[in-house]
Amino acid sequence: MNNLNQQNKNWKSKRKILLGISGGIAAYKIPYLVREIRKLNCEVEIIMTDSAKNFVTPMTLSTLSGRKVFTDSDFDFTIPHVNLTQWAEIFVVAPCTANTLGKFANGISDNLLTSAFTAANIPVIVFPAMNENMFDNPSTQKNLEILSKRGVTVVNPSYGDLACGISGRGRMPEPDEIMKEVLRVLSPVHDMAGKKVLITAGPTHEYIDPVRYISNPSSGKMGVAMARSAWYRGAEIKIIAGSVEIDSYGFEVIKVKSALEMFEAVKNNFEWADYIVMAAAVGDYRAKEFHAHKIKREGKGDFILELTQNPDIAAEIGKIKNDKILIGFAAETQNLIENAVSKLERKNLDYILVNDVLAENSGFQSDFNTLRLIDRDKNEFLFSGLKEDIAFEVLGNVIR
Ligand code: PMT
Is the domain covering 196-288+306-399 a CATH 3.20.20.150 domain? Predict the structure, then answer.
């Protein structure tokens, strides 16, 4: 493993995060965010405003963070607003109220949180959360624009049920989603910024009749790991997902069922993409005839199902690839390298990642995988570990 890969391994842990909490109802989710941070083995220091204390207590947060929580009564000669921002690698403000946003944008430093913002010389990411009208208010929008122009990462609230009883824009992302945004900023490289990555993931379902299909055990985890890693590296992601629930935060998702639908979706998005990663386990065959009604067993003996070949999506786009980078996967049970190289050549791919789907802790459904990346010159690189970690390393290799 070269130095860069070594340095990038485990980049998500042992990070130093300063978390600012202002007084909005979404603050009730923050204890869960603190747990997410600690689960990643990161350290967190917390500053909360006096009004935030109406929604969540310093005691709860200090118990979960394992540290004292700073409030306005700590604003003294120990200059916590300066020291904390010097200690931290990133300043996360969630929820960020209209009031606190306004102060940030206008240099008002009248409490510990706003003073820390003014003193901060580190990346800052804010999560505005408020009533929809407050969010749409021209002064809030102006303040967000000012902050964005100054390099603050603003993660806009999403649509959903708001505490004021209406459904609208203003909802703070869930703690695991906030964590993903924080990691995106903390990623050691953003070398895919401006790149568009199309990824296929999960299994296809080839229906025989309305209630039965032919499929495989793909969970979509490997495809999502590739998508998430490219997203951390700054890319825009479209994911074409077979019939499986996936973690899709931050991605545009195109849901498909069959190989034919997946093929259409890939063709429709082909022009958009700079990179196409084909991690889906596509059915090679479908029923020659689809039965419009449930096939009955009564009065029948053995049932012979005739199959016909599906298009080979990777090979079809390999024919028209132009300057796009095509990355395929190979799910093998024997002669791994030989079979993978043959697929790389036959499908005109730039890279193929081969996994032994019979090996333990590898392949289908596992959170782990062992992959060999093979390029067109037949160079081989080995990656083993959590799917999300090795996906990040694989992309590093491809980018270089
Ligand atoms: O989803 P998980 O549970 O995390 O499991 C991960 C995985 C094992 C599914 C993944 O790592 C993997 O190996 N995906 C590819 C599975 C596969 O279909 O391999 P293949 O050797 O049959 O196909 C080779 C390549 O051609 C693949 O990129 C595949 O997407 C593509 N293909 C295959 C058949 C077909 N008709 N059209 C295709 O485009």
Answer: no
